[in-house]
Amino acid sequence: MRQRTRSPAAAGGGRGGLNSPFPFDDTRPYVDALLQAFGLEHCLWASDWPCLKAPFRLDYGPVLKRWERHFTRAEWQQIMWDNPLRLFGFSAAVQPP
Description:
With 97 residues, this protein is mostly helical.
């Protein structure tokens, strides 16, 4: 059987055809599926901002706060900082806040 190559997976705050209102509480099963399929080490935060075509104002602050509660501090740093740094080959010259 051919082994699947793992690519970075992005979990964002967009609507993506889901049904709950902002801040999209019904996204948890999808995020869990991404984590299960790709592993935390291949996941990172992503958004369509500033090119988002939402029919309503979308404030990412509450979305980020909502998701921050579901991860440990170390996991959150990995998703928000460490993984993008490693996966995209960014310089580590700047440290996370």
